[in-house]
């Protein structure tokens, strides 16, 4: 594994996995944090779940096995980026604790920081937001397997940080997460 020179002034990379229900505010938080960090010269990549589903994991469905494969693929990319000095922000539901744990262990094996952030918006608030119309489709019977409704969501227990995105604006959530990363020397 390649490590930065001890004389390097660059900041270490890390993976910041933002897990939560659909419409919890994961992508909004990741983009706001990236918007704040990029002008400071921080190397940041947002590995958005929807973008990955459209390209990287388009061959996968939504069975438990496929969801775990989705998380593993994105986790690999995040770990490679983070290992090379990039702050990888990963707003991906990742509903199963064991799949997220496998990603954490991959990071541990390479000595790469991994933080699991729970965007802890309750399902009722997510359903009201319904950014993609998923909750309405599920209620109408047009969608089966909606995470947190009729398919499991295993919240981190405990997360490295819980963000109450339903109680604050995206800027406040980003400030909370930024402060957390600064405390750990990652921002």
From TrEMBL:
One example GO MF annotation: adenylylsulfate kinase activity
SUPFAM superfamilies the UniProt entry points to:
P-loop containing nucleoside triphosphate hydrolases
TM helices/strands, residue ranges:
none
Q: Which Pfam families match?
A: APS_kinase
Please indicate which superkingdom the organism of origin belongs to.
Bacteria
Enzyme Commission number(s) of this protein: 2.7.1.25
- Record's protein name: Adenylyl-sulfate kinase
